[in-house]
Amino acid sequence: MKLSCFSTAALAFFSFALFANAEVERDIEYGNADGISLKLNLFKPQGKQAGRVVYVHGGGWRGGAKEDCSILSLVSAGYAVASVDYRLIPSLLTLWTITLKTVVRDQMPEVSKPFASG
What we know:
The chain is built from 4 helices and 4 strands, in the order αβββαβαα. Strands 1-2-4-3 form a 4-stranded mixed sheet. Strand 3, helix 2 and strand 4 form a beta-alpha-beta unit. The chain starts with a helix and ends in a 6-residue tail after the last helix. The relative contact order is 0.14.
């Protein structure tokens, strides 16, 4: 727990130092998919912008978040950076379980009868 508190404090300090000369807008909704709000964080340098960059975090569509942006140093070089979130896929175990239940229910109804209540 102490490490977590320290990490949060360190992140807040370094974020403040890095963006002292930047405008930060968080949780801007850029879309909505199936009732899920899709948001981005926007980091804009003060003064003239050299360009704009859209950052899509890694994670194989299974994990990660817009807060995991690893290119924020570009802001101090004059670039505006938009770090976006997107919908993540369920875990493979969840997909396998859903698929298995569907196959059993639809293709083998006699087997699925004992499980019909759950």
